[in-house]
Amino acid sequence: MRPQHVVFLCLFLLVAPPAPAPAETRPAGLPAPLQASDFIEFNPQWARIGQLLFFDPILSGNRNIACATCHHPEFGTSDGLSLGIGEGGLGLGPRRRPGEGRTRIRKRIPRNAPALWNLGAREVRFMFLDGRVSRSDIYGNGFDTPAQEWLPGGLQSLLAVQALFPLTAQFEMAGDPRENEVAGAAHDRIDKVWPILARRVRAIPEYARMFVAAFDDVQAAPDITIVHIANAIAAFEGLEFQSYDSPFDAWLAGDDTALDATQLRGLKLFYGKAGCAECHGGKLFTDHEFHALMLPQFGPGRTRPFDPVARDVGRMGASDRLEDAYRFRTPSLRNVALTAPYGHDGAYATLEGIIRHHLDPRGSLQAWTPQMAVLPDVPWLAATDFLSLDDRLEQARFTARLDITPRRLSDAEIADLVAFLKALTGTASVKGRLGRPERVPSGLKVER
Asked: How buried is 189 (Cβ within 10 angstroms: 0-12 exposed, 13-18 middle, 19+ buried)?
């Protein structure tokens, strides 16, 4: 080598930047990126109608509660409560009040209001925490639902099917049978509710014009049915609440700076030592299965006519299989930091709380107190809110079922896990696309 070459090489070594260190091996089990092709295609024109209907109380029996009341964007498409306050309540989120006088609520909603993020994904197989709405040919209409063979035809997605059922529930949207014809029809047969609501909507000229313009099979107002209404709401939910632009998604796509050191440690725990991905794997962070977690039981329960106590048996209530007792659908963890409280009945107000329960279900259950639930004060229900905690036999039944393995993590590791879960929060997507309308065609109040 010539002397000048040696000098040049030495200078290069002095001033050239060091070669980038090889990227650290990523943990096993990481999902492929979630993307637009993973979702059902929804009609944007339908979604604009669905946006109005989602916020419009016209679909409730007493015209006083909308889908958005319990699934509001301000609260991560939930309501910020452990157990919701449905028909008869006033206000939004943790500020919601139980009403007063003869219209006050008679019962809390039995379960925590589930978030709506990414429910339009093709991989979603069940709706509701007990999976009582699913795809099936058991009734000859493509779906297994509480409506059985009376479910109307033409519903274009599982999300559209799901949209029909809160409308028929007394304590959610229908109201008391003595108050309105919707609730009365629900006590006759479930499918009698939907034509009444469809008549209400098509009688509003602005809605009628929009449906005629958007749906090929609607030539005039009388053609509008509950199927068109449900398909429109599903289109709004399916497009509005798509979310896959979190820091984790950026990291998964190759941006190694998208997660900080704490979040990266949490990610390794999630896919490794903590075992979270065993149930919360895949693109949506759920296995779409049902598991018993030994969460504290409280509230009115989702009881069946023959249940001896206020309780919630979870999946068994829909399947009638004993092995499904106290099992609930695994929720997606996308945007989970926005959707507190956590658990099928919202038993834990923080991510740390629900993580600690997963690590030590029995110990956490024993340490749990009613003050940990986010429940607005309802004096006339206070005597029954926590009855199930005092029922020795029911406690024995549900504490006998546990599908997760206790694990040990340090306080620092739990903090790392929380940090990673916060990295699953979307950025622009959580602000929505159409957002909240200023007004709705019915002229009824849009809750703010």
From this structure: exposed
Give yes or no: residues 272 and 218 share one domain.
no
Distance separating alpha carbons of residues 23 and 110, to the nearest angstrom: 48
The CATH number of whichever domain residue 218 belongs to comes to 1.10.760.10
Q: Among 24-38, 127-141, 406-420, which stretch is predicted with the lowest mean pLDDT?
A: 24-38
Q: Report how far residue 406's alpha carbon sits from residue 364's, in angstroms, rounded to the nearest whole number.
A: 11
State how far the alpha carbon of 444 is from the alpha carbons of 50, 58, 424, 426, in Å: 16, 7, 36, 32
The CA distance from 218 to 223, in Å, is 5
Tracing tokens 């009376």 back to the chain, one arrives at 150
Instruction: Give the whole-angstrom CA distance, residue 93 versus residue 251.
Output: 33
CA–CA dist 165, 318 (Å, integer): 14
AA letter at 169:
A
Q: What percent of the chain has pLDDT over 90?
A: 91
226 and 260 assigned to the same domain: no
Question: Both 78 and 188 in a single domain?
Answer: yes
In a domain, 2, yes or no: no
- Predicted TM-score (pTM) of the model is 0.93
Cis bond upstream, residue 247 (ω within 30): no
Q: DSSP characters for 374-396?
A: -----GGGTTTTTGGGG-HHHHH
pLDDT at 236 over 80: yes
Half-sphere exposure of 38 (CA within 13 A, CB side): 16
Do 186 and 96 belong together in one domain?
A: yes
CB 128 within 8 Å of CB 116 = no
Sheet of 143-144: strands edge to edge?
A: 126-127, 133-135, 143-144
pLDDT at residue 48 greater than cutoff 80:
yes
Q: Kindly state the tokens that stand for 426.
A: 């979307």
Please tell me the distance from the alpha carbon of residue 107 to that of residue 68, in angstroms, as a whole number: 20
Domain holding 295, by residue range, is 250-422
What one-letter code names the amino acid at 364? S
d(CA 249, CA 430): 14
Question: How many CB atoms are located within 10 Å of the residue 72 CB?
Answer: 21
Distance, in Å, from the CA atom of 156 to the CA atom of 135, rounded to the nearest integer, reads 12
Quick one: 264 and 239 in the same domain?
no
Going along 100-239, which residue ranges are E strands? 126-127, 133-135, 143-144
Angle between helices 205-214 and 193-202 (to 10 degrees): 100
Do β-strands 143-144 and 126-127 pair in parallel, antiparallel, or remain unpaired?
unpaired
Sort 14 into a burial class: Cβ within 10 Å, 0-12 / 13-18 / 19+. exposed
